[in-house]
TrEMBL record:
Name used for this protein in its record: C2-domain-containing protein
CDD domains xrefs: C2
GO molecular function, one term: metal ion binding
Keyword Ribosomal protein included in the entry's annotation: no
């Protein structure tokens, strides 16, 4: 009997210790998730206790090998988490010790997620050379990781910092990109030759600077490349948007099966889709001449659509009046004189806002088609066209043929004009909210493509463009000096 009592007491003590252990674990989990913090989830939320938000700062690398002629390299890297989400850095030209100083924020990631980073040397027009890679698990702190080649040879050291915080926002999709919103601008000479996007008639940088008003010439960075007269550039832009699932949820726009042109693309010969994907790679090729930057507010979009500043526009207008012979030069280009142009866009399934200018020429229209921007994906988040409109009575018509005044504001008029994907007009309010969220301070109006007010604004913009032909040699064709090449602050 005493033996039974002893066993009973032992079992009871073990059970008590187990309950205490479970209670301690529960307290530690509560501490980790910080349930008292504003916006923290409750026990019924869907965010697991072990999920974390990550804030990376990729500082740079040291001691990379020379991969190019001239004993230098043009390095960039691709980071990914568990193969679920990736980040591509800017290209740092001509260096073995690149400084990136780039940030990457990701929400709702397992606390033991694996980070893999691959470092490459960019070869324009050729296959990029693989330098090396490393893997590590995520955690707070400063990291110095050895970059190893496939042969395990040491190829340098990469430095980055990482801060983790518990995920507190319920219903956050796993591996959600959370900024900072960044962009790259790609200028394709190949598509430019095809589309006929003439750069300028100036022979060299000396002539280019001589033709500009003093204020304009002085403001240009000396490192800005000026292509020769034969250069033809067609620009595309790629903005990595944050929070797209917050607005669109699980909604995707499948290609429109009732649209004959879409049928030819998606059910026609495989060669059609292969050609479109090949053209997409050309349009969005990462080269040492790409521009990279971060988005702080709406101005970072307007600046891209017209690369110089407003004062230069006023100087350019005076110069044009005095000397009509320079009408076709970049002297008339100005940052806040946003180009009167229509842009074709998609928000792809990777949450990237891709767009380029569309035009009347068949070739330019081809280069701006939605399937091309989407790399022939069978679905996208959304698609359509947009244009900038001055916030004046009657919009573009209110300018009456003159340059906008210095205090004019701009708004974005965006629609669902895509025959390829036929986006649901019920999602237009979500589209507007998504754009406003990613470009703070921007004014947006979203329209169904059949809207009469929208059609009139496009017509007015076209007529204004015809009255100011020099403004048509701006955003899509000029390698601007507002964003430094190969760097992100």
């Amino acid at each position: 009997m005493s033996l039974l009592n002893h066993l009973s007491s032992h079992i009871h003590a073990q059970a008590h210790r187990a309950r205490e252990h479970a209670h301690n674990i529960h307290q530690r989990v509560n501490s980790l998730t910080n349930k008292d913090a504003p916006g923290a989830q409750t026990e019924s939320d869907d965010v697991p206790a072990y999920a974390v938000d990550l804030a990376f700062r990729f500082l740079g690398a040291r001691g990379l090998p020379a991969m190019d002629i001239g004993a230098l390299s043009d390095p960039f890297f691709v980071a990914n988490l568990d193969g679920k989400i990736e980040y591509k850095s800017s290209v740092q030209p001509n260096t073995l010790n690149p400084v990136w100083n780039e940030q990457w924020f990701v929400k709702n990631v397992p606390h033991n997620a694996a980070l893999e980073v691959k470092v490459y040397d960019k070869d324009n027009g050729q296959r990029d050379d693989f330098i090396g890679s490393f893997k590590t698990t995520v955690g707070d702190g400063k990291f110095e990781c050895i970059i190893e080649a496939s042969s395990k040879a040491n190829k340098g050291t990469m430095f980055f910092e990482l801060k983790t915080t518990p995920t507190r926002v319920p219903n956050t999709p796993q591996y959600s990109f959370d900024g900072p919103v960044n962009f790259s601008r790609h200028a394709s000479a190949a598509i430019g030759r095809f589309a006929g996007a003439k750069e300028s008639g100036l022979e060299d940088k000396t002539a280019f600077l001589a033709a500009l008003p003093d204020a304009a010439a002085d403001s240009l960075p000396q490192t800005s490349p000026v292509p020769p007269a034969s250069a033809r550039l067609y620009s595309t832009w790629k903005y990595h948007l944050k929070g797209v699932p917050l607005f669109f949820g699980d909604a995707h726009q499948h290609w429109l099966e009732s649209y004959p042109a879409a049928q030819k693309i998606f059910t026609g010969p495989p060669m059609i889709r292969a050609s479109i994907r090949s053209a997409h790679r050309i349009l969005y090729a990462r080269t040492t001449m790409n521009s990279f930057g971060l988005v702080q507010d709406a101005n970072d979009l307007w600046r891209q659509l017209a690369p110089q500043d407003r004062q230069q526009a006023m100087a350019a207008e005076r110069a044009l009046t005095a000397n009509p012979s320079i009408v076709a030069t970049p002297s008339a280009q100005a940052s806040w004189v946003v180009k009167p142009a229509l842009y074709t866009y998609v928000i792809d399934n990777g949450d990237r806002f891709r767009f380029s200018e569309t035009g009347a020429a068949l070739a330019t229209d081809f280069a701006s088609k939605h399937a091309l921007h989407a790399c022939c994906a069978e679905s996208v988040r959304y698609a359509g066209e947009y244009h900038a409109r001055p916030l004046l009575d009657r919009g573009w018509a209110g300018l009456e043929g003159r340059l906008p005044p210095e205090d004019v504001e701009w708004e974005l008029w965006i629609d669902n004009a895509s025959g390829t994907y036929g986006p649901d007009p019920e999602l237009l309010p979500k589209l507007r909210e998504c754009i406003e969220y990613n470009f703070p301070g921007i004014k947006v109006k979203a329209f169904d493509f059949k809207d009469e007010e929208l059609a009139q604004s496009k017509k007015d913009m076209k007529e204004y463009a015809q009255s100011k032909p020099h403004l048509m040699h701006t955003a899509s064709e000029l390698h601007d000096g507002d964003v430094s090449h190969g760097s992100v602050v």
